[in-house]
Write a structure and sequence with these properties.
The complex is a heterodimer.
Chain A (H helix, E strand, L loop, with lengths): L4 E3 L2 E4 L5 E6 L6 E7 L6 E7 L2 E4 L8 E4 L6 E5 L8 E8 L9 E2 L3 E5 L1
Parallel strand pairs in A: 2-11
Antiparallel strand pairs in A: 1-3, 3-8, 4-5, 4-9, 5-6, 7-8, 9-10, 9-11
Chain B lengths: L2 E4 L3 E5 L4 E3 L1 E4 L4 E8 L5 E7 L5 E3 L5 E5 L4 E6 L8 E9 L8 E2 L3 E6 L1
Parallel strand pairs in B: 2-12
Antiparallel strand pairs in B: 1-4, 3-9, 5-6, 5-10, 7-8, 8-9, 10-11, 10-12
Classes of the chains: A mainly beta, B mainly beta.
C-alpha cells in the first residue's frame, strides 16, 4: 500500500515570496490533515478536510495561508506571502475516517526555509 | 486550551536499560491517546493508541503505555531498549467527540540509545 506522498521535500524561499506544497493521501482515505512542525516542537494542526470540505481551520493563519482539496483526493497548501516564522516542516496526514480513534498516517513532510 | 506535556526533551540510555517517557495532558473529558515515533530519516508512525478498555496498551516493538485517568497521564514504557529505538517520540491527544481527528501533540522526547 502506497503511503502519503508529499512534494517538494525541501524548499528555500525569501520572505514575502509565495510557496505551495502538494499532498496525495493514501487511497480511500476520506480525511486529510496539514500540520506545521517548528523545530523543537510537536506538530500543530493547521487544517483538516473531510473529503473536499473543511472540518477545522481554526489554527490556519488565513491572512497568508490557504488550502484546498478540490476533488476530495489530493490537496495543496499555499503560503503567500511567507514570513521568517513560517520556516518549519509541513506534514500531511490522512486517515480512513473522521474519528478521534482513527490512526493518522503521515507523509515525509516538506521542509521550508524562509530567508 | 488543551495541551500535552512531555517531561523530558532528551533521554540518553544504554542498551538493555528500561525506558519510561512521561506524558500528561490537560483535558477533563473523554480522550483518545497516541504515541507516535519518528526514526531518523523516516516518517512519523504510530506506536500505540488507547481509546477504551484495558488502560494498559501494547504497541509495536515491545512498547506499552498505561493510561491513568486520575493523573491525566499516558506514559510510554519499554523494559529493555535497543540501539534501534533511537528516535523521537511524540505523545498526542484527541480530545472530545466533536474534535474529529484533531490531534494535539507534545513537544517530543528525543531518545538516544548507546550501544
Amino acid at each position: 500500500e502506497a503511503g502519503v506522498a508529499q512534494s517538494p521535500r525541501y524548499k528555500i524561499i525569501e520572505k514575502r515570496q509565495s510557496v505551495a506544497f502538494w499532498c496525495n493521501p493514501i487511497s480511500g482515505h476520506a480525511t486529510l490533515y496539514w500540520y506545521q512542525q517548528i523545530l523543537g516542537q510537536g506538530p500543530k494542526l493547521l487544517i483538516q478536510f473531510q473529503n473536499n470540505g473543511v472540518v477545522d481551520d481554526s489554527q490556519l493563519p488565513k491572512d497568508r495561508f490557504s488550502a484546498e482539496r478540490l476533488k476530495g483526493v489530493d490537496s495543496t497548501l499555499k503560503i503567500q506571502p511567507a514570513k521568517l516564522e513560517d520556516s518549519a516542516v509541513y506534514l500531511c496526514a490522512s486517515s480512513l475516517l473522521l474519528a478521534g480513534t482513527d490512526t493518522q498516517y503521515f507523509g515525509p513532510g516538506t521542509r521550508l526555509t524562509v530567508l | 486550551a488543551q495541551s500535552v506535556s512531555q517531561h523530558n526533551h532528551h533521554v540518553i540510555l544504554s542498551e538493555a536499560a528500561s525506558l519510561e517517557l512521561g506524558c500528561n495532558y490537560s483535558y477533563g473529558g473523554t480522550v483518545n491517546l497516541f504515541w507516535y515515533v519518528q526514526y531518523p530519516g523516516q516518517h512519523l508512525q504510530l506506536l500505540l493508541k488507547y481509546f477504551s478498555g484495558d488502560p494498559l496498551v501494547k504497541g509495536i516493538k515491545g512498547f506499552e503505555a498505561e493510561f491513568i485517568k486520575s493523573k491525566f497521564s499516558f506514559n510510554l514504557r519499554k523494559p529493555s531498549v535497543q540501539w534501534s529505538d533511537t528516535a523521537e517520540y511524540f505523545c498526542a491527544v484527541n480530545a472530545g467527540y466533536n474534535q474529529g481527528g484533531k490531534l494535539i501533540f507534545g513537544q517530543g522526547t528525543e531518545l538516544s540509545v548507546k550501544p
